[in-house]
Amino acid sequence: MLTGKQKRFLRSKAHHLDPIFQVGKGGVNENMIKQIDDVLEARELIKVSVLQNCEEDKNSVAESLSKGAKAELVQIIGNTIVLYKESRENKQLVLPR
């Protein structure tokens, strides 16, 4: 689990990122979770945008994505979800203790 200090640090890093994925009418599926997992391995921190036509609530989308990709949910701001997962190969972010 992330501490408040670590979440603040990750939020400041995520501020400049653009959402890479969009969750729309189809909602969350296995393929999307797999792709998000792969991208998290490469980047560690990503934003996912929940579109207006998404039938699922943004909180349940965030939960499905974080559980499916085994990632930490950093924040939900507006319709944007910020996810973090420590990379095994390409560690870039050093979290504060």
TrEMBL record:
> Which InterPro entries does the protein's record reference?
RNA-binding_CRM, RNA-binding_domain, RNA-binding_YhbY, YhbY-like_sf
Residue ranges of every copy of the CRM domain listed in the record: 1-96
Do the record's keywords include RNA-binding?
Answer: yes
Q: Which UniProt keywords apply?
A: RNA-binding
Which PROSITE patterns does the record associate with it? CRM
Q: What is this protein called?
A: Ribosome assembly RNA-binding protein YhbY
Species name for this entry?
Litchfieldia luteola
Q: Which gene is this protein's source?
A: yhbY
